[in-house]
């Protein structure tokens, strides 16, 4: 090249640089990589904004959060609210409602550009069939339906949160999961089979959600244990046509059984004419609680084993994603205490609380495994 040509090209900014490597194609649609946001993550002492920023950089795209109805609406009327607590509540459709905790989580997720799917459960004592039983189903359907409308009025496309927080890029909640694992007593304590009562609640919830936000997705509860049998019972009870997404919690010690559980649920859906409705795995985990707790669920492992199982599970689920119609796989959970609990699920996190006295979260091996899978899914 003549001596004068190179300076000229530099001056013109047209020096040819090495071609950038083309981006790898995505292996699944946006939203496939999800996690649960609960437990210590939303408690005092943890920097929630920092954690959701880490989620984003790691490759998390979807968050499942818990909204406990009894926490937001513990009182039936404003007159019932103790005087010293009234400043924490605002009246919505006649019910005093405290949004502060949920506002914090939804706002943090929006700031990180993460989509949110709340699971809405646990009736307040004033609307339980059995006021003394926290796991009791609601006494009726109207109050739960009204609460869903209240949530959409706060976090949906026209939500008051976005109007009150102009500093946030609005990221409305458009998916709502109706209850959690109603086929087990821990979440739906009832002397009769759950199907008819849950189907009635789902129908009411579907009407309320579609009225408040016609573009929203109604997600049926995830079922645990023999979930395919619970799915069949729900169909016999009349859930068909009242949800847009199904959900499954395919817990098992063996990956082969995780896949089998999902296939069995899909077969039930096909037999009932819903073969094309997507499935969300709204909880999947292997707790790193081996040798840590006396209460076991049968699939505890070590921290290293948790990472190995996570990696193998996501790789396998990606291969069957289209066949089984999987939309999202939510790891349970992002941050766990990993100490001082009889419950082995308290060791489920990708990250854990640090030493007592600091609580600064630290990574577990599963964190690195998840991030590597997520980045590959996203073509990064």
UniProtKB/TrEMBL annotation:
In terms of Gene3D superfamilies, this protein maps to: Glycosidases
Q: Does the keyword Cell membrane apply?
A: no
Q: Which UniProt keywords apply?
A: Signal
> Which range is the signal sequence, renumbered to this chain?
1-23
Protein species of origin: Svornostia abyssi
Q: Does Glycoprotein show up as a keyword for this record?
A: no
Q: What is this protein called?
A: Uncharacterized protein
């Amino acid at each position: 090249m003549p001596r004068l040509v190179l300076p000229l090209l530099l001056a013109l900014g047209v020096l040819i640089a090495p071609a950038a490597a083309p981006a790898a194609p995505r292996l699944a649609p946006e939203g496939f990589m999800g996690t649960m946001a609960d437990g210590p993550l939303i408690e005092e002492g943890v920097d929630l904004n920092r954690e959701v920023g880490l989620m984003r950089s790691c490759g998390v795209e979807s968050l499942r959060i818990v909204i406990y109805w009894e926490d937001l609406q513990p009182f039936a009327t404003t007159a019932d609210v103790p005087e010293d607590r009234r400043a924490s509540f605002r009246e919505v459709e006649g019910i005093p409602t405290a949004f502060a905790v949920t506002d914090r989580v939804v706002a943090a997720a929006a700031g990180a550009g993460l989509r949110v799917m709340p699971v809405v459960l646990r009736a307040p004592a004033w609307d339980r069939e059995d006021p003394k039983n926290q796991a009791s189903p609601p006494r009726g359907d109207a109050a739960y339906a009204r609460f869903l409308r209240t949530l959409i009025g706060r976090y949906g496309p026209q939500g008051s949160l976005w109007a009150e927080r102009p500093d946030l890029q609005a990221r409305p909640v458009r998916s709502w999961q109706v209850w959690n694992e109603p086929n087990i007593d821990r979440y739906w304590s009832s002397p009769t089979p759950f199907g008819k009562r849950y189907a009635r609640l789902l129908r009411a919830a579907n009407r309320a959600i579609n009225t408040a936000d016609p573009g929203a997705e109604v997600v049926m509860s995830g079922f645990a244990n023999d979930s395919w049998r619970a799915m069949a019972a729900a169909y016999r009870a009349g859930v068909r046509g009242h949800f847009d997404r199904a959900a499954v919690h395919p817990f098992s010690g063996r990956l082969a059984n995780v896949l089998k559980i999902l296939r069995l649920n899909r077969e039930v859906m096909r037999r009932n004419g819903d073969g094309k409705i997507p499935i969300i795995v709204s909880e999947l985990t292997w707790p790193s609680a081996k040798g840590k707790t006396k209460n076991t669920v049968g699939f505890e492992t070590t921290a290293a084993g948790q990472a190995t199982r996570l990696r193998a599970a996501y790789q396998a689920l990606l291969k069957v994603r289209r066949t089984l119609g999987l939309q999202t796989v939510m790891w349970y959970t992002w941050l766990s205490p990993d100490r001082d609990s009889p419950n082995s699920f308290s060791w489920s996190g990708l990250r854990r609380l640090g030493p007592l006295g600091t609580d600064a979260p630290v990574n577990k091996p599963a964190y690195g495994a998840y991030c590597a899978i997520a980045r590959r899914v996203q073509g990064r």
